[in-house]
Amino acid sequence: MSLRTRKLVGSIVLMLWMVFFALLAMGLIGMLPSRPPVWLEPVLYAVLGIVWIAPLKPLFIWMGKGRDTRA
Questions:
Q1: Which of 31, 33, 35, 48 is most buried, with most CB under 10 Å away?
Q2: What are the contacts of 58-67 at 24+ separation with CB within 8 A?
Q3: Which residues pair with 2 in a beta bridge?
Q4: Most trustworthy range by pLDDT among 25-29, 53-57, 67-71
Q5: Distance CA 29, CA 22 (A)
Q6: CA distance 39 to 57
Q7: Inter-axis angle of helices 57-64 and 3-30, to 10 degrees?
């Protein structure tokens, strides 16, 4: 598979993952019994904002491999 195709497929997977994870994060925050304190809410979103990228490391490695067919 060419590098260009890998990047296209990887970009599509990345966008789908971001939508899925955003919905998951909102659902998790919404399942809390009551609204968290004002100081805790940004912390929760910051942690979730960092955690979403961890499962994608293999995808980024895969996207970078392959042969570039451009001369």
A1: 48
A2: 59/10, 59/13, 59/14, 60/10, 62/6, 62/10, 63/6, 63/7, 63/9, 63/10, 65/6, 66/1, 66/2, 66/3, 66/5, 66/6, 67/2, 67/3
A3: 67
A4: 53-57
A5: 11
A6: 30
A7: 170
Residue 45 has pLDDT above 60, yes or no: yes
67 forms beta bridges with 2
Per residue in 9-29, pLDDT (tens digit) is: 999 999 999 999 889 888 887
The whole-angstrom separation of Cα 38 and Cα 20 is: 25
Q: What is the residue-averaged pLDDT of the chain?
A: 84
Phi, psi values for residue 65, rounded to 5°: -85, 170
Give CA angle at 61 (69, 55), nearest 5°.
Answer: 145
